[in-house]
Amino acid sequence: MTARRVVSLAGAAVLLMVTCAPAHGQIPDRLRRIAQGAGNIARSLLPISTPKEIEIGRGIASTIAGRYPVATDTDLTAYVNLVGLTVAAEWPRPDIAYHFAVLETPDVNAFAAPGGYIFITRGALDLMDSESELAAVLAHEVGHVNRRHVIEQIRKSDVMRSVQSETGLSGGTLDRVVGTGSNALFMGLSRGDEAEADSIGLELAYSAGYDPQGLPAFVGKLASHAGEGPLADLMASHPDVAARLAALNRIVERQGYRGGEVLAERFRSHVPKAGGRE
Question: Which of the residues are catalytic?
Fold first, then answer.
């Protein structure tokens, strides 16, 4: 496991200029084994290269931004990027650059488009009380990107059956692929993908120096607010909250995650409550 660290805000300007360059020994061994396990995916599926992944992800990101307005608060955006890049650096993908943005909606959700385009809603931020929660949720989304969950769904989709080579991923076909990926995000990824992203999110956030209870704390709030309208989509697309929380706690116990930074005051100083919850 990497040396545990939480980047100070004094380093934000420098961190926001880098793209999580690789470093020897920086990928936790367990995550390396997960990545190596991707080789058991059916070889008959058409490969999608990183440049095409980024192109597809850019289209999906545009679709998300068309559905929800993107926040223009530059301080908030810089802070979310700082936290997101901190956890992403624990499992770097040198072939992509991560971009984090806030969506102006009371819906409680987060989205991970291929190629490193990650969004979190104001509704989700309003439910949080600490930077450790934010870090864990963003690390969960980084897990989706690094395991290429949306890309794998696209590869298995009907729209890809007529595509013989990557050069066919252009024009109207590319538009349909972007639509397929966007629908996957809006409707929710598989329970298996979500569980895998939870495990990765816990490890990345803890490895970066955050309290391992960040993600369980946030998921617990989903349970306590389950009857509220803005949570409807998230509750429908994610695993049962009680089962998810139990699984998270088992991972924390099994891996021996202890200690870490909560940073509630720093979070409050950068993330004003938009929904009025104190």
Answer: 141
The label of the residue with tokens 């990650």 reads 118
Q: Amino acid letter at 81?
A: N
Rg (CA), the chain: 18
SS (H, E, C) 143-159: HHHHCCHHHHHHHCCHH
Whether the Cβ atoms of residue 198 and residue 244 lie closer than 8 Å to each other = yes
pLDDT per residue, tens digit, the chain (278 aa), is 455 667 666 555 444 434 443 333 345 566 655 555 544 444 457 899 999 999 999 999 999 999 999 999 999 999 999 999 999 999 999 999 999 999 999 999 999 999 999 999 999 999 999 999 999 999 999 999 999 999 999 999 988 988 888 888 899 999 999 999 999 999 999 999 999 999 999 999 999 999 999 999 999 998 776 555 444 455 455 558 889 999 999 999 999 999 999 999 999 999 987 654 44
Distance (Å, whole) CA 37 – CA 147: 10
Residues 6+ apart with CB under 8 A from 3: none
pTM comes to: 0.84
Rounded to 5°, angle at Cα 232 from 195 and 62 = 75
**H-assigned helices in the chain:** 12-15, 29-36, 50-67, 74-88, 122-127, 131-146, 149-155, 171-187, 191-207, 214-224, 232-237, 241-255, 264-270
Tokens of 180: 């397929």
Question: Cα 13 to the chain's mean position, in Å?
Answer: 22
139, 21 contact by CB (below 8 A): no
CA angle 69, 75, 77 (to 5 degrees): 45
CA terminus-to-terminus distance, the chain: 36
Longest dimension (CA), the chain: 54
AA letter at 35 = A
